[in-house]
Specification:
The chain is α+β, with helices and mostly antiparallel strands and about 140 residues long. Helices cover about 35% and strands about 20% of the residues. It has five helices and five strands. The radius of gyration is 16 Å and the shape is globular.
C-alpha cells in the first residue's frame, strides 16, 4: 500500500504537479484497489467537485498515471497505472467484469496477450476485458 509521499513521488515522476485535489483523487483510486467510475469517485470525494475530479483524471490519463477501462456496461472506469513512464503504459493487464455484481477487477498478473496487427498498425494501449461471474458471486449461488 502506497502512502501519500509515494503517491506524490509517483505523480511527480509522471510530470504531474501534486495539488491537494489531485492527491485526493489518486489516493481514492489507490485505496479502492479496483477500477472506479467517475460517479464512484465523486461519491467518495465529497470535498472535491465533479469537474475537478474529471480534470484530474484527464491529466492523469494524458501522463499515463492511470488506465482508462471501458467495461461495456457502466461506461468508463479508472485505475492507477503501475507504469513508471509518463509517455507510455508498461503494465497493460487483463480486467474482469462480473456480470452479477457489476464490479470490475484488475488481473494484474495476467498480461494482455500479444496481438498480431496488420502492417502499418502500432499498438499504444489495449483494453482487454473478460466478463463472467466473480468468485464472491459464484459462492453466493452455490
Amino acid at each position: 500500500m502506497m502512502d501519500k509521499n509515494e503517491i506524490i513521488a509517483r505523480m511527480e515522476s509522471h510530470g504531474i504537479k501534486p495539488t491537494a485535489n489531485r492527491i485526493l483523487v489518486a489516493e481514492a483510486l489507490h485505496r479502492q484497489k479496483r477500477p472506479m467510475t467517475l460517479a464512484e469517485l465523486e461519491a467518495g470525494l465529497e470535498t472535491v467537485d465533479r469537474s475537478n475530479i474529471f480534470r484530474s483524471l484527464s491529466l492523469f490519463r494524458e501522463r499515463h498515471f492511470i488506465h482508462v477501462i471501458e467495461d461495456g456496461c457502466e461506461g468508463t472506469r479508472y485505475e492507477l497505472c503501475l507504469s513508471t513512464h509518463a509517455d507510455r503504459d508498461e503494465d497493460m493487464h487483463v480486467h474482469f467484469h462480473c456480470e452479477r455484481c457489476h464490479r470490475t477487477f484488475c488481473l494484474d498478473k495476467t498480461p494482455v496477450p500479444p496481438v498480431s496487427l496488420p502492417e502499418g498498425f502500432s499498438m499504444e494501449t489495449a483494453n482487454y476485458m473478460i466478463k463472467g461471474i466473480c468468485p464472491d458471486c459464484s459462492r453466493r449461488t452455490q
